[in-house]
Amino acid sequence: MEKSYDYIIAGSGLAGLSLLYRILREDSLKGKKILVVDSEKKTKNDRTWCYWEKGEGLFEPIVHFSWDTLSYFAPKVNQTFKMDEYKYKMILGDQFYSFVLDFASQFSNVTFLQSEIKAIETEEGRAFLKSNEGVFEADFIFNSTPIFYPEINPENSLLQHFMGWKIRTHKKTFDPSEATLMDFTLKQTHGTTFMYVLPTSEMEALVEYTLFTEEVLEKEEYKRELTDYIENKLDISDYEIVHDEFGVIPMSLAKFNRSEDEEGRIINIGTAGGFTKASTGYTFYFVQKHLEKVVENLSVGKSPLVEKGFEDKMYDWYDRTLLDVLLKKKMEGRDIFTKLFTKVKPESVMAFLANESSSLEEFKIRHSLPPWTFASSGMKQLISR
Hints:
Helices cover 29% and strands 32% of the residues. The chain has 9 helices and 17 strands. Strands 1, 2, 8, 9, 10, 11 and 17 form a 7-stranded mixed beta sheet that branches. The longest helix has 18 residues. The protein is globular and about 60 Å long. The relative contact order is 0.15. The model has no long low-confidence stretch (mean pLDDT 96).
């Protein structure tokens, strides 16, 4: 097996395979020698990615389902809205993996290695990856593994954790033209707690129990809440669970570096590079926006290290401010999102959460929330970076 490559991609999850796919679609880069290293093969339907997007995106061929009508529920709030520009999209993990891996199989210059990664470092202008199978070098290593994660603790982070069940009923039950984005009518005992309901047919839907808290729960508690919601809120008693998933995503004020060396030979991507949105845990869309810039830079001979612009820094500040409010328990997450969705046009909230809002939309959003609650958190985050 060769030891030297143009690019090494450490981790073959969402970020790693998205980068590989984008590189192989770029004429000026598709001939590069690429090594993809991961400790396991990606074949299982281990997660579902949902995101909103304008128009058709790069992974449109594998969008499993999409909605332009969404609902938001909270005590005394029952809101359904149709989006004009965005669609809320769902991609299944196994379909994503097979789509990219099938495409990559056409390229003899791409090598996959199943091995545990021991270290990633630089020396004399080259990047090196050490694994159980030996040492490999490249011009650039793109890392999406937790190897460089900062310390995540209850002082600087919340965890977005969730359990989802895809259920199948035995009679027509759901309206697949409408999805529940957030149902906050649940008890907020542990912290910010809500349900998604994403129907993909009249007889199938993904129901997901989601929390933003310091610690995960016992698995049985997720199951109890899902069962109670399905049977008592959705009024469904005759159903079967055809798929289940569980996940934990950090929502953190900790600093995730975009690079691990002065020359920018080790580039962190995905959550490792800070592309999980701190205030919501959303990842898929932000990973794609970043990697598009990475490949654009590579294609014209520029450094793949994408520096933050003014807008990036502004949205980072918004995110950290909101997360600080939640961490310090200055205001419940349910109350924050309810004020946003009831005082501002919902699609403007979606644009804001996608880092695509206009100045006017941002002004309205800032003024929909209690200023004194957010002022101290905003000032703290402004001087902390």
